[in-house]
Specification:
Elements: H1 18-33, E1 40-45, H2 52-65, E2 69-74, H3 85-96, H4 100-107, H5 111-118, H6 130-148, E3 151-156, H7 163-174, E4 181-187, H8 194-206, E5 212-213, H9 219-230, H10 236-246, H11 250-263, H12 275-280, H13 284-292, H14 296-308, E6 312-313, H15 314-321, H16 325-337, E7 341-342, E8 355-358, H17 361-370, H18 373-389, H19 394-401, H20 410-425, H21 429-441, H22 446-459, H23 465-476, H24 483-499, H25 503-515, H26 521-536, H27 546-554, H28 562-577, H29 582-591, H30 611-623, H31 627-644, H32 649-665, H33 668-685, H34 690-706, H35 709-718, H36 734-744, H37 748-764, H38 775-783, H39 788-805, H40 808-820, H41 824-839, H42 844-858, H43 861-874, H44 877-892
Parallel strand pairs: 1-4, 1-5, 2-3, 3-4
Antiparallel strand pairs: 6-8, 7-8
Helix pairs in contact: 1-2, 4-5, 5-6, 6-7, 7-8, 9-10, 9-11, 13-17, 14-15, 14-16, 14-17, 14-18, 15-16, 15-18, 18-19, 19-20, 20-21, 21-22, 22-23, 23-24, 24-25, 24-26, 25-26, 26-28, 27-28, 28-29, 28-30, 30-31, 30-32, 31-32, 32-33, 32-34, 33-34, 34-35, 34-36, 36-37, 37-38, 38-39, 38-40, 39-40, ...
Protein name: ATP-binding protein
GO molecular function: ATP binding
Domain Orc1-like AAA ATPase: 16-184
């Protein structure tokens, strides 16, 4: 084995680390090569004491020699409950030096979103979207990397980083190809599970190379370090015993050799037997005994430092221990001499005058665990008070409050509730959940107990719907939740049930609560919510007569408040899905607006009603041929969510429905672009949700319209676009699109079966809109050869339904279908009629298809040219190729088919 011997002055932990140091040098060189260089990522993994921190220090040294800006941060075992702790350490120092207007200029639109999480801006009035905050933090790095290039970020003890930081780190790691920054991460194996472990796995995968797993030093390297430290006269048996005692752990080797020097032990075989006793004094109980030997005051100081965890200063420790300043300063000096505490590296921008830190996390852990449990709890309580008195807020104090034993303390419950509100405002719902769960243990006073459960349910609504259900059901069964708060709790409960795939129970819950109320705004809101959830259900068998009841109730509404407006929207959507007169659909939808705009309280980011209601409104416009209004609504959603930093499921849905509007208009390229973005966002939220199906279905439908059949099939296969389908409605109609896809790839029998399943689903809902669920026309075309009689009946039914609905698109598509089943002059006449209807329609793709079909039927080069121009303008490549082929065939005099 070759001994890797760096310079004698190099830290012990860098011995036998040539491979890692070379990787660091290469990564820094790549970063510095050009401002347009992509970023880099290195991950060092190893047990405690194997030299991860030393490698980060070496990275700093190498990077600074090359003129890099270096920022660093470290996770802490007792600080994992502090949201954004590590990312704040990393980025905040660079931002707090700027004036607020400068920081806003650098972060741009992300300032109000990421600023509160970084502690440089006050949070807004509503809870922040965690995914939006995460994206904002990634954007902050992008902006800062441009200002401070070449930029290197060092993260030590990442296994102890808070959940919010790990989420950001995983997102950043996946975007480093486009951000010129080098990120170097050090972590222990294991130590973490759940989402945190998954985020670290994402980071490791993004590194693009195997994680560098550090191993212990060899006997030769240990001997080299021993002789470099205590003298070249250290003999071989002594050096071998140093290795045997420490297991080749670099940190333990350094600490042991420091004890050898302190004790003036002769480094020979004769004294080698004393090494084990010396080593025990540097760890575990030995360390605790050594600490106690420094005296009661020094021990109390060390305990207080361990409670604080970070930002350890003589002033804060003096407050926590009630020592006078001189005594505290003397204790700090003793602990530094004993190599328990130290002053942070002055090169570290986080180091302020007077701050201290533990020499090694192993020491911090041993000291913290040595505090008697009762005393430790009491010290956390005092620390919480110190933090609160310092004006840092309830959220900053909450990590200490979480450690206090329950004691029926109403004030502590109030503090934890306030901390939860602060956490939600910066996009940390998991931290809010921990605070509220701890508040329940206190327990709260009877008059506020239900409120705490309600707040907890709201905090966990999107992250843990099953847990939310339990909290809200318990809250609703207790006294103390009345009026609007109770109605809102029932609505949140129904949302959680919906997200937990318990749609029928969601409907029954709202229905039962509505029955408890007399006529008035509360009851009307609950009735509207009931109809909303019934409206998104993919079947109607469980709620017979729903449409009639909804029509009667909406008939009494004039739009004077948001409950009435909601009912008008629901009635418009229901009428549209059932293919009732489109003019009436639009009139109902218009009644729900105020001067053509969404009413206050019904905006996209308002939470009283939920996003589903407005998606129904936009869909009613989209399928009633008012695509201008649909596009305006969905574009407004996109702007609102982007501005508010909501980049999770809400933004995914906004892209999906804007894609739907573009697809209906015939802007197929634009539709494909926004639908791919919707699918990307939906992937981050999680597969299987309705929004995921909407994105996938819309993209497959658009690709089929473009003629990109292979790509459509690939997307369907990759994203599981196949039964079983969700229990909620998906737009466009999921079975119709799947059936059309199967027909396009030549699986005719499967395609017919899928379209017949769409027929049954439509029948279960009491009729259908032939544009919303176009299974009729697709099935008629598919059956034309084998069962022309049935195909003809379907075409007639499609025409009847289309004329009932009354839009140019619906009638034009029905006539196109009828033309496809005919021959000769009747085919030509019907094709010409289809063109006339679809020319008046706002749906460009369908107009283009009708032109091409008419051109083929009438053997008209002029019509084919018009169809070709339209197909090209809307991005329908397959249709354009069909028109070109038909024109060439016509030019040769061959018969057109």
């Amino acid at each position: 084995m070759t001994e890797a011997r760096p310079m004698r002055a190099a830290p012990a932990a860098l011995w036998e680390r040539d491979r890692e140091v070379t990787a660091i040098e290469e990564a820094v060189d790549r970063l510095c090569a050009d401002r347009s260089s992509s970023g880099g990522l290195l991950v060092f993994c190893g047990e405690a004491g194997l030299g991860k921190t030393a490698l980060l220090a070496e990275t700093r040294r190498i990077a600074e020699l090359r003129g890099c800006t270096v920022w660093s941060a470290r996770g802490g075992e007792t600080l994992r409950s502090v949201p954004f702790n590590v990312v704040r350490q990393l980025l905040q120092p660079a931002l707090v030096t700027l004036l607020p207007e400068e920081a806003r200029e650098y972060l741009g639109d992300w300032y109000d979103i990421a600023g509160p999480a970084l502690g440089i801006a006050d949070p807004g009035g509503r809870r922040a979207d965690p995914q939006g905050v995460c994206d904002g933090l990634v954007a902050a790095v992008r902006r800062l990397a441009g200002r401070d290039w070449p930029l290197v970020l060092l993260i030590d003890d990442a296994h102890w980083a808070d959940e919010e930081t790990l989420r950001w780190l995983a997102a950043l790691a996946e975007r480093l190809r486009e951000i010129p920054v080098l990120v170097v991460v050090a972590r222990r194996p294991g130590e973490i599970s759940g989402d945190g472990a998954r985020h670290l796995d994402t980071v490791a995968a993004a590194a693009g190379r195997p994680v560098s797993t550090l191993s212990a030093l060899t006997p030769d390297a240990t001997a080299g370090i021993t002789r470099a430290t205590v003298g070249a006269h250290a003999d071989a048996p002594f050096c071998r015993e140093v290795w045997a005692v420490t297991g080749g752990n670099p940190y333990e080797t350094v600490e042991l050799l420091a004890k050898v020097q302190d004790s003036e032990l002769t480094p020979t075989e004769v004294s080698a037997g004393e090494l084990r006793a010396l080593n025990r004094s540097a760890r575990g109980r030995g360390l605790v005994a050594r600490l106690e030997g420094l005296g009661v005051d020094a021990t109390r100081f060390a305990w207080a430092a361990a409670i604080l965890g970070d930002a350890i200063s003589v002033r804060l420790v003096a407050q926590l221990t009630t020592m006078d300043r001189d005594t505290a300063a003397r204790c700090a000096a003793l602990l530094r001499t004993a190599r328990i505490l130290t002053v942070p590296d002055p090169a570290d921008p986080r180091a302020d005058d007077g701050e201290l830190e533990f020499v090694h996390p192993l020491i911090a852990t041993a000291v913290y665990n040595s505090i008697p449990e009762g005393l430790r709890t009491a010290m956390h309580g005092i620390a919480a008070q110190v933090v609160t008195d310092s004006g840092l807020g309830a959220a900053a104090a909450s990590r200490h409050l979480l450690q206090v034993h329950p004691d029926d303390d109403a004030e502590l419950v109030d503090q934890l509730r306030e901390a939860a509100r602060e956490h939600l405002a910066v996009g940390a719902p998991d931290a809010a959940r921990r605070c509220l769960e701890r508040a329940l243990e206190e327990p709260p006073r009877p008059e506020v107990h239900a409120r705490v459960l309600y707040e907890l349910g709201c905090a966990t609504l999107l992250t843990a719907p099953a847990t939310t259900i339990g909290h809200l059901q318990t809250a609703l069964a207790m006294p103390g939740l009345d009026g609007d708060a109770r109605v809102d709790a029932v609505f949140r409960l129904s949302q959680a049930l919906l997200h937990n795939d318990q749609l029928e129970q969601a409907v029954r819950t709202v229905e039962a609560e509505a029955a408890r109320h007399d006529a008035g705004p509360a009851r009307l809101r609950l009735q509207a919510v009931q109809y909303m959830w019934e409206g998104v259900y993919a079947g109607e068998a469980a709620t017979p007569g729903r449409s009639e009841r909804l029509a009667r109730l909406a008939g009494t509404c004039t739009g004077r408040d948001n409950s009435e407006r909601a009912l008008l929207i629901l009635r418009a959507f229901d009428a549209m899905t059932h293919g009732e007169n489109a003019v009436e659909v639009v009139e109902l939808a218009d009644q729900a607006l105020v001067n053509g705009r969404l009413a206050p309280g019904l905006g996209w980011t308002d939470t009283e009603w939920g996003v589903e209601l407005l998606m129904m409104l936009g869909s009613a416009y989209a399928y009633a041929d008012r695509l201008d209004r649909a596009e305006s609504l969905f574009a407004e959603a996109l702007r609102a969510y982007t501005s508010a930093g909501w980049s999770g499921g809400h933004l995914a849905l906004a892209h999906a429905f804007l894609g739907l509007a573009y697809r209906r208009q015939g802007r197929l390229k634009d539709a494909e672009e926004v639908l791919r973005e919707s699918l990307r966002l939906a992937e981050r939220v999680g597969r299987g949700l309705p929004l995921y199906w909407s994105a996938t279905c819309g993209l497959v439908d658009t690709l089929l319209a473009r003629g990109h059949v292979d790509e459509a099939w690939s997307i369907a296969d990759r994203y599981g676009f196949a039964p079983p389908y969700p229990s909620t409605i998906v737009l466009p109609d999921i079975r119709s699109v799947r059936g059309r896809l199967l027909l396009a790839v030549g699986r005719t029998e499967d395609g017919v079966n899928e379209l017949e399943a769409a027929e049954k689903a439509a029948a279960a809902r009491g009729g259908h809109n032939p544009v919303l669920a176009p299974w009729t026309v697709d099935l008629a075309r598919a059956l034309a050869g084998d069962d022309p009689a049935r195909a003809a009946r379907l075409a007639v039914d499609a025409r009847r339904q289309a004329e009932r609905f009354g839009t140019d698109t619906a009638i034009g598509e029905a006539v196109r279908c009828a033309a496809a089943l005919e021959t000769g002059q009747r085919k030509v006449r019907l094709a010409q009629q289809a063109v006339a209807y679809l020319e008046a329609s706002p749906c460009l793709y369908e107009h283009a298809a009708a032109r091409v079909e008419y051109g083929i039927a009438a053997r008209s080069a002029a019509e084919l040219n018009r169809g070709l121009a339209l197909a090209r303008s809307c991005g329908a490549d397959g249709l354009a190729e069909q028109a070109l082929t038909a024109r060439r065939t016509l030019e040769t005099g061959s018969p057109l088919t």
